[in-house]
Amino acid sequence: MSNRHETKGASAAGFDADDWSECGDGAGGQHGTGRKPTVIMIEGAWHWAGCFQKVANLLALRGYPVLLPDLKSHGYSDATYDQVSCMADYVAPVAALLEKAQEPVVLLGHSMGGATLTSLGELYPHKIRRLIYLAAYMTPNGKTVNDYVSSPAYATDPSAAELFQVLSPSADGKGLTLDTTKPALIKAAFYGDCSEHDVALAAANVIPTTSNVPGNFVPTGTASRYGSLPRTYIECTADRAIPITQQRQMQADVPGATVMTLDASHSPFFSQPERLAEMVAAALEAS
Q1: CATH code at 189?
Q2: Cα dist from 62 to 55, 56, 57, 147, 277, whole Å
Q3: CA distance readout (Å), 204 to 8, 9, 200
Q4: pLDDT at residue 198 above 50?
Q5: Which residues contact 27 (CB under 8 A, 6 or more apart)?
Q6: Dmax over Cα atoms in the chain, in whole Å?
Q7: Which DSSP helix (H) or strand (E) runs through 274?
Q8: Which of 18, 26, 80, 123 has the lowest tally of Cβ within 10 angstroms?
Q9: What are the start-end ranges of the H helices in the chain?
Q10: What is the number of alpha carbons within 13 Å of residue 284 lying toward its C-beta?
Q11: Of 89, 15, 49, 82, nearest to 205 (Cα)?
Q12: pTM of this prediction?
């Protein structure tokens, strides 16, 4: 049992489908309504939705409603990684919000959260205004996240050296475990420019093992659905979890995204929340 339920109280914003009503009738409004779209922020592997809290607050000050759902087995979810059966099961908390959305929303996904964006973009194009990939896996049809991670180019990239020293398959083969006995390496890989306070917050809230399901998800997007959605890719040039070379490879493999550049580590929601909020707002205002 992890300690995530005991440590999140002040920092996480857990939402379920019923919370959508808090936004009011059409609060995620778009075209012609004069209201700003709702932003749903989706965490990556091991993380919890509350990691976005700083950015969510700043976007709220700009008038954007923000929802922070925990994916199945993350954060406040009662499930564990080995109880995730498939991609639809994994992304169900976000899908529930999309089902209830009265206007198209914006999905922002960080890191492994990119797989969630790609999956839901194909399933719910009519519910989505824009996809924003934040230092995230944006993989083409037929290619999984794990295809990239296991590639020689990724495995031998010096920028990912610390990452591969803290990852190992779970004993049951259903997940990927983070070696929390190596905090210096974890900080280097994920939180290089983050404060000690934020690193400690992350250490108290990440789950030790993340499900293999999103990493093995095989996209089958179509031009009329996923391909019709505007996409923004916010690349992080000092990232040592998804090196900038890999971020740019995915931008080339799935062309068409508007690219924005941030000089930051893998976790700018901790280290540069003001700048990240500005970039997200700029991407939406340009839509």
Answers
A1: 3.40.50.1820
A2: 11, 10, 9, 38, 9
A3: 8, 11, 6
A4: yes
A5: 35, 38, 65, 102, 103
A6: 53
A7: helix 273-285
A8: 18
A9: 4-7, 53-61, 87-90, 92-100, 113-123, 145-149, 152-155, 161-165, 183-190, 196-205, 244-253, 268-271, 273-285
A10: 29
A11: 49
A12: 0.90
CB 233 within 8 A of CB 259: yes
Contact 44, 112 (CB under 8 A): yes
Q: Which residues pair with 80 in a beta bridge?
A: none
Amino acid letter, residue 104: P
- Two tokens, residue 246: 């890999």
Instruction: Give me the number of domains the chain comprises.
Output: 1
Catalytic residue annotation: 239, 266
Question: Does 70 have pLDDT greater than 60?
Answer: yes
164, with CB counted inside 10 A (0-12, 13-18, 19+), is: middle
User: What radius of gyration do the chain's Cα atoms show?
Assistant: 17
Contact assessment for residue 235 and residue 244, using Cβ atoms and an 8 Å cutoff: yes
Q: Which residues pair with 109 in a beta bridge?
A: 42, 133
User: To the nearest whole number, what is the mean pLDDT of the chain?
Assistant: 90
* Beta bridge partner(s), residue 106: 39, 130
Specify whether the CB–CB gap between 44 and 136 falls below 8 A.
Answer: yes
Give CA–CA dist 58/54, Å, rounded: 6
